Amino acid sequence: MKNFSSKEIRFSGDSIKSCIGFIDLVDSTKNTIEMENLEYMRKYYSTFINTISDQVKNSNGKVIKNIGDCLLFYFPKTTDVNNIEVFREVIECAFKILDERYNINQELSKQQLPPFNYRITMDYGVLDLALVGDYSQIDLFGTTVNLCSKINNSSIPNEILIGDNFYRILKSFSTMLNNYNFINHINYQITENNMYPLYKIKRKNAFELDIEVNDKNLSYNQQLDSPLRNLNNNNNEKIVLVDDEEDVLFTYKSFLEDQDYDVIAFTDPSLAMNYIRNISNFRDLLLILDIRMKNLNGFQLHQQIKAIDSTIKILFVTALDIVDELSTIIPGISEEYIMKKPVDKKTFTTTIQKILK
Predict the structure, then answer these.
(1) Are residues 168 and 300 in the same domain?
(2) Smallest Cα–Cα separation from 18: which of 124, 145, 92?
(3) For the segment 71-81, what is each residue's pLDDT rounded down to a tens digit?
(4) Is residue 277 part of a domain?
(5) Do 168 and 254 fall within a single domain?
(6) d(Cα 116, Cα 49) in Å, to the nearest integer?
(7) How many CA within 13 A on the CB side of residue 284?
(8) Does one domain contain both 195 and 242?
(9) Residues 126-185: tens digit of each pLDDT
(10) Which of residues 157, 180, 204 is at a domain's end?
(11) What's the pLDDT score for residue 121?
């Protein structure tokens, strides 16, 4: 991004009220510092900027600038606070960005590039306008921009965090409350006596995945009291997903969210085993397992599950090129219980229907 001198910035004196957003690429410095090939680094950042810019543009938003590994964007149509469809489009834009992560990360993996994780923060308020460069482009300044930028650091990776001003507008639409859950996150301390509430957004009937962040990396810890499940299912057919990659679970969730299954998922195989041991009826149960996982691999998990009840149905989904060999490694397993990553949605759901039939 070009750095403009003070002579090239002219504050217009105009302001608007609108929704803005920041999206930050988590751990980009750590991911790129060891890249010896400069072309890899360029590809990494250009993929981030271009994919996010396209998604924002497709939702009638505008990217204003990139600030290192962070993009600032806004949605001009949100000046009309009575237009619910405009605000729904803003929220769905953020969800689409998260939804597309799996596909993007698959492509990055093929190019031996690290995956994307995002911090997404949005808020609503007064935006001061300025003209930059040859005065043909706009920039945004002011309290709303500053606050949204600061609370971005409080955001949980791969979640959507909004400020109280934006939340107040969204909750004024009853259908928004019907379609989305707004979960109080934390109160951001602006001054010693001034706290600003922040909220996470979840689609209703979606799946919950608790994310625990430490100093060095992101670890995804699935808690039994907050399972990744379809909350409104009355179907007795239960699917347990086990994969140590959160992106994969997210993709499986998106494939199954329109199906009438009771779904729960774990990134930790040990927690999955604890859950399975407490199930009383295995007749309508299907486990979908990855093979290569930390602590406990799919083969070991398979043996422990079969020791509980040999009739439990298990579907392996693996990136390993050993589909033909699995039938000899695991006695009694047939090819219909093995799928190769990445999976196709139709094939995935059809296979599950056949197994549970």
Answers:
(1) no
(2) 124
(3) 999 999 999 99
(4) yes
(5) no
(6) 11
(7) 10
(8) no
(9) 888 887 665 457 788 888 888 888 888 877 888 899 999 999 999 999 889 888 989 888
(10) 204
(11) 95
Residues forming beta bridges with residue 53, ordered by sequence position: none
CA distance 24 to 155: 10
Rounded distance between C-alpha atoms, residue 123 and residue 242, angstroms: 35
CA distance 49 to 66: 8
Round to whole Å and give the CA distance between 269 and 292. Answer: 11
Of residues 45, 28, 2, the one with CA closest to residue 139? 2
pLDDT in tens, 291-336: 877 666 777 888 888 888 888 999 988 876 655 566 556 666 677 7
CA–CA dist 108, 38 (Å, integer):
16
98 Cβ contact partners less than 8 Å away, ≥ 6 residues apart = 118, 120, 158, 160, 250
Ramachandran quadrant class, 112 (left: phi over 0; alpha: psi -120 to 50; beta: rest): left
For 244, the token pair is 């140590």
For residue 268, the enclosing domain spans 218-356
Q: How far apart, in whole angstroms, are the C-alpha atoms of residue 205 and residue 202?
A: 9
pLDDT given at position 220: 34
Residue listed under structure tokens 């799996």: 102
pTM: predicted TM-score of the whole model, two decimal places = 0.58
Tell me the pLDDT tens digit for each residue of 197-252. 999 898 875 444 433 333 333 333 333 333 444 434 445 788 999 988 888 888 88
Half-sphere exposure of 304 (CA within 13 A, CB side): 17
Mark residue 160 as left, alpha or beta (left: phi above 0; alpha: psi -120 to 50; beta: remaining): beta
- Tokens 């971005």: give the residue: 152
Which parts of the chain fold into alpha helices (H)?
Answer: 28-32, 38-58, 84-99, 101-110, 143-151, 164-170, 174-179, 246-256, 269-277, 298-308, 323-329, 345-356
Largest CA distance in the chain: 75
Element holding 19 (H helix, E strand): strand 9-25
Q: Say if 276 falls within a structural domain.
A: yes
